[in-house]
Structure formats: C-alpha cells, structure tokens
Design a protein that fits this description.
The complex is a heterodimer of chains A (621) and B (525). Chain A is an alpha+beta fold. Chain A contains 15 helices and 17 strands. Chain A has a five-stranded antiparallel sheet with strand order 2-1-5-4-3, sandwiched between helices. A five-stranded antiparallel sheet of chain A has the order 7-6-10-9-8. A five-stranded mixed sheet of chain A has the order 12-14-15-17-16, covered by helices on one side. The longest helix of chain A is centred in the N-terminal third of the chain and has 73 residues. Chain A starts with a helix and ends in a 7-residue tail after the last strand. In chain B, 33% of the residues lie in helices and 21% in strands. Chain B contains 16 helices and 23 strands. A six-stranded mixed sheet of chain B has the order 14-18-13-17-15-16. In chain B, helix 3 crosses helix 4, helix 14 runs antiparallel to helix 15 and helix 15 packs antiparallel against helix 16. The longest helix of chain B has 22 residues. Classes of the chains: A alpha+beta (621), B alpha+beta (525). The interface between A and B is medium-sized, with 15 and 18 residues.
C-alpha cells in the first residue's frame, strides 16, 4: 500500500510534467508540419499555374507566329513564280496541276519557303485546295486538301489547330492560311503553314518553366503520347482520373487560340501516382477551328521533390518532437525523482519507525519544506527513541521486581513448612525416641516434599528461561493434537473427550514440540479445571487458505474477568501450586509462530481457547 | 536483234558524238599523264569478276580485266582478247583465236588455258547468274560442277592462242554473254573462286586475281579505289596515269565534290539535273545504261487481288512526269524496248483507281493491320521520292506504307529472306540479249515471285533456248515475261537512263552499249 501510494505520487508528478512539456511539443510540431505542407501545396499550385500559363502563352505565340510567317510566305518569290505560272498557263487546279508540275520544278517550292521561314508545315494550294507543293509531304502534290481550303475561306489569317499527315505520321499543327492574289491574272493561290504543335521547341519551352511531363491525348485515336521523356506513359494512359481531367477541361474551356485573354477560371488539377513517382496534372483542351475536340495537352509536374521535402520535414519535425518528448520524459522523471526522493525517504523512515525501528535519520540536503519536514522527523525519531528507552528501562525494572517478588513468594511458600518441620524436629529432640522418630519421619518427609517443590519451582523457572528457539518444519496439526491427547488418556476417566479434526487440514510450518507443548498445557489446564468431570472438545479447522484453527473447550470452572485479563501474565496463577508460567509459555510459542491466541471464559461455564496459526509463519515474520 | 543493234548504235553514236567531235578537235593536244577522280553511290564490295553485282563493281572489273570480246562504241563487237571468232552452223561450237602479245598485269602472257580456267572458275563458283547459265549450256560443265570431271570438256584449248566453246543447246548470242564483266579473263593461277560474301572486306584485290585490263588496281581503302595505268596494255598504255574512284558517295555529295573541283566524273540525281544544266564547266551525259525501276510486293503478305489493285492504283505517269521530269519511259514490262522487241505490245499500265478500289472491295478490310514496310536501297536517289508518292497512292486503297531506307547488304538480306512487304529496286541492263536478260532477271528475283509463276516462266525460257528462229524465241520470252507480269509481285514502273556529269577538262572517255564508261582513251585537256 505504501509502495502504491509512493508510485502514484511519482506517476502523477511525471504525468504532470509530461503534459506540461510534451503536449506543446506535439502541438507545435503538428501545426508547423500542417502549415508548411499547405504552403507547399499552394506554391505547387502556383508552379503548375505558371507552367499552364506558359503553355497557353506558347500556344498562342505559335499561332501568332504562324500568322505572321504566312503573311511573309504570301510575298515569297516562289509563290509569286507559281502565281505567274498558273495565271499564264491557266492551270489552276485538279489534273491540270500535273502539267504545271511536270513542266516546272515547283514541287520543292513549298520546302524552300518553309526552310527560309523556318516553318514546320507549309503548303501551296490552288484555289480549289489541290496541293501544288507541300513542304512536309512533298509526295502529296495533286491531292486535294479540302480542310485547308475551307479554313482559308472561313478563317483566313486566323490561327487554327489542324491535324496534318505525312506518310509516316499524323500530328497536330497550329497553322494560319490566306489567299494570295496576283496582278497577272485572276487565279489565286492558298498558302497555309505553321508549326507542329508538339515540336521539341514547344515542348522544351513548356517544360522549361517547371521541368514538366508533357503528354498529348489524341481524341481521334483515344491514345496517349509522351512528348517528354517518361517511363510512366503506360501507367498514365491507364489512369481513369487523367482521362476524367481531359474530359473536364474539354467541356470547360473553349478554343484557347481564339480567346483574347486567358480565362481566369480555376485550373483543374489531378494528382496521379505512378510507380514510385507522384505528379499533379493539369490540361489544356485542343479544339479545331470547327470546334471539334482534337485532344488535350496534359502537363504534369513531379511532386517527388515536394513529397521528399515534406516527408523529410515531417521526419525532422516528428523526430525532433520525439527527441523532445523523450528528453521531456527523462527530465520529468528526473524532476519527479528529485521531488519525490526525500518524500520517499521520509515515508520509508516513517514506515521503519512504525515497525519499531527508531534509529531512523534522514539526510537533510535542502532547506525547503521537505527539508524542514525531514528535520522535524529526525527530531521526532530521536524523542521517540529516548522515550522508549526510558520506558523499556522502567518496564525491565518492574519485571525484575515482579520476578523477584514472585520468586521470593514461590520460594517462601516451601521454606515455611521446612522451617516449621526443622523447628518441630528441634523441639522433638528431647522427646522419646519413638515420638522423635515419628516426628522426625514426618518432618523429614515434609522437608523433602518442600525441597522437591522448590526444585520443581526452580526447574520451571529454569525451563522458562531456557525456552529454546523454535525449529520450523511442515507439521500436521491433527497428528500433533492426537499425540498430545494420547498422553492424557489415563486422566480422562471423568471427562468426555470430543475430538473434531479437519481432514482437509493442510500441513503448517511449525515446531512440532512447541505446538505439542501448547496443546498439553491447555489440555492439562482444562482437565485441572474439571476436577469433577466434564466435557473436553478439541477441534481443528482450516481457515481460508492461509490459516488453521485449534480450538480447546472445557466445561470447567471458568475464569473471572480479572483472571482473563491477567491470564498470560507470567507467574500469575489461580492454582494453589501453579507457577503462572504455563499460559505465558503458550502465548510465547504462539507468538513465535506468528499466530493469534484468544480466550472466552465464564465462571462456572467453562473456557475456550482458540489458536490461529498461519500455514507459513515466514510470510508473517 | 536486227532492231536492237541499230537502235543501240544510233543511241551510242548520238551519245558520244559530242565526245568524238571534242576529241577530234583536241586530238593534237592529247598528252599522257594526269589523273581523274570519279564517284559512285554504289558500294564496291568485290572486285572479283565472278562476284560483281552493281554497276560500279562491273565498271571496276571492266577497267582492270579483259574479255574475249567487247562492245565497240558503235555497238558492234570488237576484238578484245579474241582477235577472231567463228560459230558453227547451228551455233553450238564457237572457235576463238586469241591475240598475241597480251600480258597480264604481272607481265606473264595471256594464253588460251587462262581463258579456259577463267570460265571454269566462273562456272564452278555458282555465284553469278552468268556462271549458272554457262553451267547449264556448256558441254561437260554440269559434270565438272558435280566433280565428275576435272575439266570442262566443252572448253577445248587447241593451242596457246585458240579455244573452242561447245554448247549442247544453240547459242547464237554467245558473244553477248562473253562481253559481260563476269566473263573477264583471270590469270590461270587465279586461285580459288572468291565468293561475294568473302570479298566484302573492302581490301585490296587479291594478288592472285590478276587481270590484263588497261588499268590495274593499286589500292582499295576507305571507300576509295585507285587504278594505275597498265604500261603494257595490249592496245596501248592509257593516257591517264591514274584513275581514282570514290564509292558510296551520295549523288548530293558527288555534286558538291564536283562543284568544288574535287571530282571529275559523277553520277547525277535527276532532281539535280536543272542545277547541273546551269554548270558552265560541265557536260552532262545520259548514259546508255538502262535500268528498270520496279516495285516488289511480297506475295506472302498481300494476295494477288490486292497486288493487282496496287498495280492499278499507282500514278506511274504522274511520277514520271513530275518527279522524274520525263527522264525515262513508262515500263509496260521489265525490259526496255531496246532489248525486248515485244515491249511495245504490252498494255500500258496506267492508274485505274476505280478498278483498283473494286478489287479491294472484294477483300476483307483491313487487308493488313500494320503499316506496310516499304524498303529501299539507301543510295538510290530516285527511289525515295517515287516510294513516297506510291505511299500516297496506296492510301487511296486504305493501305499505309512506311518507307525504310536500308543499306545494300541489309536490303539484300531481307530480300533474300522475304522479310519485306514492299520494295523498290533498280534492275540494270545486263545484256543486250532478251533471253540472257530474262535469265539474269529470274536469277535475281526468283525469291520474289510466286513459285507457280516462276516455274512457268522458267519453263518458257527453257523452251526458247534451242529455238534459232528469232520470232519463235521472242514469243516464248514474251509469254515468260507475261507470266511474271501477271503475278503482280514485281511491278515494272520505269525505264531510266542515268545521267552523269563530266568536267569539261576531261575528254576521250566513251560509253559502251551496256553503259560502262571506258577511260582507256580518256585524257586531261
């Protein structure tokens, strides 16, 4: 109980310290991490907004550049030459174009113009859309490109997105187109050209603003293409979320090339994880001049750096918190020990003192309340010790006096008959021999009897003084009871003996002889209390798991209250020839076995002794 | 043949008129010495006569080796090693009298046994279609090839200057065959046949291969062959001391080299003709060498109907007009009218897109899921533009083709293994004889033709061999070619004359009817 209380105080102090130190640490760590994460997410959003803005800017720049280059192309010498030829020859389109092409070296004209103006795609077409020369697909001459002709009519000088094709590939372009008129005749040409939307230059410019992964979703083929190097294209192409992002932006945004200003709407973002990488994606819809969805430019920024930083930051933050917490716990424990240490010492000293050890002194190391308390304790312990020594001394003197009185009393009793017998013999010295002989015989017998009585008294005192230390061993109480009772068989003629022994009685750790002596003493007393017969009950019981009970009841004369109070006082006896040591010895043996002895007695009703003995006296030592 | 030769004579005369006139004009100033530098887009993987394949390899052999007979500038035969020849009545025995005093490059005299050993080496090697042809017709050649006889009994050496060639089928056009580079004479100790594969190391020619031509090869290293004049050439030492040949040079690089004055004689891409015409210090020549551009279709990939549809969808006339600027003729067969008199009888194969689309409609769509691989030889300047246009035409049938430019050896390997869908190739005129030309053609393209048609064509060719009547022979050859044409695995597109550009300071060179340039009479002005 003392230990529990002591731990509890320490625990409470420790808990209090931990609460005071750890909670703020955790709180600070959590708030810092959350704030920084949010800050980074915001910053990341700003990054991708920049990349997106750069892509849209680039997209528009390409459109504007295509328009200006096509204006220049319309004034190119090669175009003028073809213009002259078609107006002079009258070969304006369809099959007649072949005659023109056969006669002139103009299949390469578009290539020459494209090279000089650095255009990725460039076509020279007749008014009806027949290709006269194509820079990107020279072999396509003579075929019609109705889309470009339609664009020239509907969207002249306005950049538009259009899918172009060569023998090997299809690709998206930003083109501009216009009619070219000539002074030499009515026949016009269409020039159309521009840039590959996803040229390395375009992609590099988009990527440069954020080291982005750039993908193209081709709406016609429903396929994904990586425009920058990435190992994750397969993973991306399987991501439903990415496809949803494309659908969202396609539904949301119009034709960016035609928008005069970038719409200030919220950007659509989608986080995607692939293998060991994390990305956040946004997308730009790609729509033809006829408002047909062509696909989407999808831009992703790697979140790896951010995630790495955040995880490192969290690791550091939580690590610092853990170290802080551990330090706080250690410091708290130290403080708690410092605070509770003196209290514990005090508590321990008080406990020892309660056990009778008055030699307790606490080192006083502080001058605070604990120090003052310790000093007061030390003074109290000294006072107690002094008082006890005085009390012990007084008790010892009283005991010796009582013993001397008792011894004197006991010794005086036989001495008187001896004195009387000797005096009688002295007086009878002068009588006749027969009378003297008779008196002498009676007196010597009396003297011898009293001397025997003195011897007995001395033996008993001697025995009491020589009381051996008990030797504990497993003992069956029932057996001891039976053996002890067997010694009284001859004295039980007028007594009805009832023995109730508990069969389930466990063995106890006891000194067999001492316990036998206790039983013999009590049974002897009981028999002496029933000189006219009566009933003697001897009972053993198991009391719980740890204790056994020995009960000896008689129906003898019983005891007065005064006799009961002084029952175990040494040398107190109610018997004419008793020493008064019997029950003192019984109490001493029971005490040596850490047992308890109690007595119920009424005058004329009888007496009952109950002795409780522990199974293992060592536990109660 | 009656028609062919006058045509060739006319062509050669017209082609060389300018040169002859110029030579006569400058005759007084002819001097020995100097060197010229030529270039070719083709690789020179072998200089062994029996292993030559491309025109440049043949040119090299023609310069360093001699043959029994050769073409004259006017297309007639002129004695080369043989001073005289005489067939028997049914053209099964040809007697050749060799010129005296002919020496090999190592100084040893050329004798009839050298001629015999050269033919035995050619026949035994089996590399060349010429060798295989001779193995089939020369008496005792079959037994010799099979190892049953130590020598060919049909090659009879009477004395050091006389040899007879005996055949078991009439060979009225044997001289055509003997004028080919493969029939060059190598010194008898010429050693084991050098396979084409074994001679691809671009090393100097084996010293064991000794010829007697006007030039001898002094080195062959890093794309450059160097010839020195052979001082003891039996027709007189060439005027030039040295001829250098840079091979595997693209026509574009050649033109740059020419303009920089580093090259004197180059092949010209048709696309550069206009530019070449503007060159003031150069003369361009249309070579009499005729080649046929043909397109191959793998019969294992595309069925006959699809192949025919492809044939009908090609805009050959437009390609010729626009891309080739009319420099050539539409091919209705594999051989030009100059050697195949029946060629004009062929139906003109022009675009019939409606028909083609109807044919395609019969086939389950798509015919092929993947783009067709359209392989070309990387050095062929004509091919890329033509193939690109054909790819455009194929789209009208819903077919996609992807052009692949391949190195010669890769092209040859894939062709042999049938690992292609489409290809474009140039077939050079090998001979002025239709039968030999068809043999050469079949030898080259047998892998690309369906087995049934090939067997029929070969059968018809065999039928033609013993026929001495020209009309009867031509009829069989006509039918043989027809079988091949109707297979639609090899579509003839155009017959083209390549163009060369020569520096104005170069004079005296001339073309023979097969298109080989002769520099033994050339000199620096």
């Amino acid at each position: 109980m003392k230990s529990k209380l002591r731990w509890s105080l320490q625990y409470k102090l420790l808990l209090a310290f931990i609460l005071v130190t750890v909670l703020p640490l955790i709180l600070v760590s959590y708030i810092t991490t959350t704030r920084i994460t949010k800050q980074f997410q915001e910053s990341n959003k700003a990054r991708i907004r920049n990349v997106l803005a750069q892509a849209i800017r680039q997209y528009k720049q390409y459109g504007a550049l295509a328009r200006s280059k096509i204006d220049k192309a319309a004034r190119a010498r090669e175009i003028n030459d073809i213009g002259i030829k078609i107006n002079v020859s009258g070969q304006v389109g369809g099959q007649s174009i072949y005659e023109l092409l056969a006669a002139e070296h103009i299949t390469e004209s578009a290539k020459q113009v494209a090279e000089s103006l650095e255009l990725d795609v460039f076509s020279i077409l007749s008014e009806d859309g027949t290709i006269i020369s194509s820079a990107h697909w020279p072999a396509k001459f003579g075929y019609k490109n109705s889309d470009l002709a339609r664009m020239a009519t509907a969207h002249e000088n306005t950049p538009f997105l259009i899918r172009e094709e060569t023998s090997d590939e299809q690709f998206l372009t930003i083109q501009s187109t216009r009619f070219v008129k000539f002074d030499y005749g009515p026949n016009k040409l269409i020039v159309a050209g521009g840039y590959r939307l996803f040229s390395p230059d375009f992609v590099a410019r988009v990527q440069s603003s954020g080291d982005a992964v750039v993908l193209f979703f081709d709406a016609s083929k429903q396929s994904w293409h990586a425009l920058t190097e990435t190992d994750d294209i397969e993973t991306f192409s399987k991501q439903v979320a990415l496809r949803n992002l494309v659908d969202q932006v396609t539904n949301k945004r119009g034709n960016l090339l035609l928008d005069s200003e970038e719409k200030k709407t919220d950007i659509n973002l989608q986080e995607i994880s692939s293998k060991n990488h994390n990305y956040v994606f946004t997308a730009i819809p790609l729509v033809s001049a006829m408002n047909t969805p062509l696909g989407a430019l999808v831009i992703g920024l790697s979140q790896d750096d951010v995630y790495t930083f955040l995880s490192q930051m969290k690791l550091f933050s939580y690590g610092a918190a853990i170290i802080g917490i551990l330090s706080a716990v250690a410091l708290s424990a130290l403080l708690a020990l410092r605070v509770t240490g003196p209290v514990q010492k005090l508590s321990k000293a008080v406990g020892s003192m309660a056990m009778g050890d008055l030699d307790q002194k606490i080192d006083i190391r502080s001058h605070d309340e604990i120090g003052m308390l310790s000093a007061a304790f030390n003074k109290m312990a000294l006072d107690l010790k002094s008082h006890r020594e005085k009390l012990l001394q007084a008790e010892r003197v009283a005991a010796w006096r009582e013993m001397a009185r008792r011894l004197a009393h006991e010794l005086k009793n036989p001495l008187f008959p001896i004195q009387v017998s000797i005096e009688t013999m002295v007086k009878a010295e002068h009588r006749n021999a027969d009378a003297f002989q008779k008196i002498f015989s009676e007196c010597t017998r009396t003297v011898l009897e009293e001397i025997n009585s003195l011897k007995k008294i001395i033996n008993e005192f001697s025995e009491f003084a020589r009381m051996p230390r008990p030797v504990f061993a497993p003992v069956s109480l029932n057996e001891v009871v039976e053996q002890s009772l067997s010694l009284f068989t001859n004295q039980m003629d007028q007594v009805t003996l009832s023995v109730y022994l508990d069969d389930g009685l466990p063995p106890i750790m006891a000194d067999k002889d001492h316990i036998g002596r206790v039983i013999k003493n009590l049974v002897g007393n009981a028999l002496e209390a029933m000189p006219s017969g009566g009933r003697l009950d001897v009972t053993t019981h198991k009391q719980g798991d740890e204790w056994v009970l020995l009960k000896i009841s008689d129906t003898g004369v019983g005891m007065s209250e005064e006799a009961k109070r002084r029952l175990f006082t040494p040398y107190y006896t109610t018997k004419p020839r008793g020493t008064g040591l019997g029950l003192a010895i019984v109490q001493s043996i029971v005490a040596d076995h850490h047992g308890k002895i109690s007595v119920q007695s009424s005058v004329g009703q009888g007496t009952t002794f109950e002795i409780e003995l522990p199974r293992d006296q060592a536990k109660y030592a | 043949m009656d028609v062919i030769r006058p045509t060739l004579i006319w062509f050669s005369v017209m082609a060389c008129l300018f040169i002859v006139a110029a030579r006569l004009q400058a005759a007084k100033s002819i001097t020995y010495g100097g060197s010229i530098r030529l270039a070719s887009k083709y690789d020179v993987r072998s200089v062994d006569p029996i292993a030559v394949e491309n025109p440049t390899e043949m040119q090299v052999v023609m310069m360093s080796f001699d043959r029994l007979v050769a073409y004259r500038r006017d297309g007639e035969w002129y004695p080369n090693i043989a001073s005289d020849w005489r067939p028997n009545g049914n053209f099964t025995t040809w007697d050749f009298q060799l010129q005296k005093g002919i020496r090999f490059h190592d100084g040893t005299p050329l004798r009839a046994k050298d001629v015999k050993s050269s033919f035995e080496r050619l026949i035994k090697s089996g590399h060349s279609w010429v060798g295989r042809y001779l193995a089939r017709v020369v008496t005792g050649a079959k037994e010799f090839v099979q190892g049953e006889q130590a020598e060919i009994s049909g090659l009879v050496v009477s004395n050091a200057q006389k040899i007879s060639i005996q055949t078991h089928v009439p060979q009225p056009n044997l001289l055509e065959l003997l004028a080919l580079p493969q029939c060059s004479i190598v010194k008898a100790t010429g050693g084991e046949p050098v396979s084409h594969a074994a001679s691809t190391g671009r090393k100097a020619p084996s010293r064991s291969l000794v010829g007697s031509g006007p030039f001898l090869i002094s080195s062959n290293d890093r794309g450059k062959l160097t010839f020195n004049a052979f001082d003891f050439y039996f027709e007189g030492r060439p005027f030039l001391n040295k001829v250098e040949l840079d091979y595997r040079v693209t026509p574009k690089q050649q033109l740059i080299g020419f303009k920089l004055g580093k090259l004197d004689f180059i092949e010209l891409a048709l696309s550069e003709k206009t530019s070449a015409e503007r060159e003031s210090s150069a003369t361009w020549f249309a070579s009499p060498r005729i080649f046929t551009i043909l397109m191959g279709i793998n019969p294992n990939v595309l069925k006959s109907t699809v192949r025919e549809a492809i044939d009908k969808t090609l805009e050959k006339d437009i390609i010729l007009k626009v891309l080739l600027k009319g420099e050539g003729k539409l091919a209705s067969g594999y051989f030009p009218p100059e050697i195949a008199e029946f060629a004009p009888l062929r139906e003109k194969r022009v675009r019939r897109i409606d028909w083609a689309q109807k044919l395609m409609a019969r086939e389950p769509q798509p015919v092929v899921e993947r783009p067709l691989s359209f392989m070309l030889r990387s050095g062929d300047d004509y091919a890329v533009a033509i193939a690109q246009r054909i790819a455009v035409n194929l789209r009208d049938l819903g077919l996609k083709a992807q052009v692949e430019l391949l190195a010669d050896d890769v092209f040859a390997s894939r062709f042999q293994k049938g690992k292609y869908d489409l290809f474009l190739d140039s077939f050079f005129l090998n001979s002025l004889d239709t039968e030999l030309e068809l043999s050469s053609f079949l030898a080259r393209y047998s892998h690309a033709i369906t087995a049934q048609r090939l067997a029929k064509a070969n059968g018809l060719l065999r039928n033609a061999e013993p026929l001495l009547n020209t009309d009867e022979r031509l009829k069989e050859l006509y039918l043989a070619e027809k079988e091949l044409l109707e297979d639609y695995t090899l579509l003839p597109l155009f017959h083209i004359n390549p163009i060369s550009l020569a520096n104005d300071t170069l004079a005296g060179f001339w073309y023979d009817p097969l298109g080989h340039v002769h520099f033994e009479d050339a000199w620096r002005k």
